[in-house]
Write a structure and sequence with these properties.
Layout (H helix, E strand, L loop, with lengths): L2 H4 E8 L7 E8 L2 E7 L2 E8 L4 H11 L9 E6 L4 H6 L2 H5 L1 E6 L15 E2 L11 H5 L13 H12 L3 H6 L3 E7 L4 E7 L2 H14 L8 E5 L5 H9 L4 E4 L5 H10 L2 E7 L2 E6 L5
Length: about 280
């Protein structure tokens, strides 16, 4: 993701406690709405950081149970809000509405869509129609995955090295996928934790790598119920976090057969579900 897309520069008055404020500029994490449509039907509006929008839309639909295979999608195209907007060439109109065009013959089970129409960048499970609807969509992990402690402890530093947006703004979350040996496969940033994960899942969707068995997901913030649900939808057997999990996330991980590690900081880590090797 380019910093030009993911950040916005604003003017401000900075106070350091020693006198009058001084005019300055600051880089902030960009946050804009993205309307996701499927064959012209609006299914969600997500507040996100622009960049990797195709991955975000695809990942969102995968983790909602709407899409499973790359061949189900013919194309993803930006579209204008109206004919007038299109004629006038309004940039926001083209870049904030993305239509997912399904391949001929692909049928959508709209009952699997559990979100309301609008979701904020900070709110995940609060936008779900019901927890029961989420729990029933995806089967537990079939094959037990036991991550190595030596691998896990090295991951936060590897993630920080690719967090260009966070380094510039201090305001972006990150999700990264690693293989069992700790090799970075893909990392994405977004103002929303769940959006960053959707982008990672969308990347795997387009690469035709789903499900993501045998891999480790690292998130820069806390782990919520929805993070675990999205990881399960992508077949990810291990989730690790720099921060804490919620009680619902731990309950979900234990029920779904996923390993869950929190407060991953060097040698120190808490294992909430599953076991570690080494």
């Amino acid at each position: 993701m380019s910093l030009k897309k993911s950040t916005r520069t604003v003017t401000l008055v900075r106070h350091d406690g020693t006198g009058a404020g001084i005019g300055a500029e600051d880089a902030l994490a960009a946050e804009e709405p993205l309307e996701i449509r499927v064959d012209g039907r609006s299914v969600a509006v997500v507040m996100r950081t622009p960049g990797h929008d195709r991955e975000l839309a695809a990942g969102f639909l995968v983790t909602e149970g709407i899409l499973r295979r790359r061949e189900e999608v013919l194309d993803l195209v930006y579209c204008a809000t109206s004919r007038n907007a299109a004629r006038e060439g309004v940039p926001e109109a083209r870049e904030n509405i993305l239509d997912v065009l399904l391949a001929p013959g692909v049928a959508v089970d709209w009952s699997r869509l559990t979100r309301n129409v609008f979701t904020s960048s900070s709110c995940g499970i609060c936008s779900k129609a019901s927890i029961e609807a989420v729990r029933g969509q995806f089967p537990p992990i079939a094959e037990t995955f036991v991550p190595r402690r030596e691998v896990l402890k090295a991951l936060p530093e590897r993630l920080r090295a690719v967090q260009a947006g966070f380094a510039a703004t201090g305001g972006l979350h990150a999700s990264a996928l690693f293989d069992a040996k700790g090799n970075l496969l893909v990392a994405r940033e977004d103002v929303g934790r769940h959006n960053a994960l959707d982008k990672v899942v969308g990347h795997a969707f387009f690469a035709e790598r789903l499900p993501l068995g045998g891999n480790i997901l690292l998130v820069s913030g806390r782990v919520s119920f929805e993070i675990m649900q999205k990881a399960l939808a992508a077949g990810i057997p291990c989730v690790a976090a720099i921060s804490a999990p919620t009680s619902a996330a731990v309950e979900f991980a234990r029920a779904s057969g996923q390993a869950l590690v929190g407060f991953l900081r060097g040698e120190r880590m808490n294992v909430y579900a599953g076991t570690l090797a080494g």
